[in-house]
Amino acid sequence: MNRPEDSFDHAELGRDPARTDGTAPEDRTDDVDDLARTNGLAAHLAAGPRADRAELDRLVAAAIARADADDLVDVAWTVTDTPIGPLTLSATPVGVVRIAFGDEDDVLDELATQVSPRVVHLPSRLDDLRRQLDEYFAGRRDRFEVPLDKRLVKGFRARALEALAAHVGYGQTASYREVAELVGNPGATRAVGTAMATNPIPIVVPCHRVVRSGGALGNYGGGPEIKAWLLRLEGASILL
Prior knowledge:
Layout: H1 8-11, H2 29-46, H3 53-69, E1 75-80, E2 87-91, E3 96-101, H4 105-114, E4 119-121, H5 127-137, H6 155-167, E5 174-175, H7 176-183, H8 189-197, E6 210-211, H9 224-234
Parallel strand pairs: 1-4, 5-6
Antiparallel strand pairs: 1-2, 2-3
Helix pairs in contact: 2-3, 6-7, 6-8, 7-8
């Protein structure tokens, strides 16, 4: 994905979204205006000769650093390479909010719509998650210890994912029915399948460990090949 590091089209730093409690947003007009002006100049320089590129890079870096320091970033994101392909990682101040297979722009649009328009490429905020993913893929980690922001999943789907994370450990598998039983609704196997398919934080919340009755793989957001790869990494017994 050729995406500029100054994702201010999503950040919309020229305005502060209304608060859900009905109170007026904190007045950060000067900070926002400064960043908006920087972004406008950066866009102008981007259309200019190559000599302007260094200045553009400097402006972008300064704007992102200022946004980070002034707490204007609601969602930080980056793309990391892994043995199963690129993953788009994102986190809020609460915790990891989204892990997506590939590096599609749609992920950033989703975050801007569902979480906050202030989405900024800020890899440093995801260093710990990247380190733990590297350890997992190298076979040196069997559980993740990162805070999670679970706002993108609610109701039965949230309960199913919580039951999965609590009861199905590294190297283990469970059927959709078994997860439904853990939630207290044995007949809700189809709803469990939907919960796994819409899991916003795969791998860390290990929906790849849920298989069909009898051990067949079943579907997976990253594709059945990636699901099989992850289960083999963990040493789980699977049927192909």
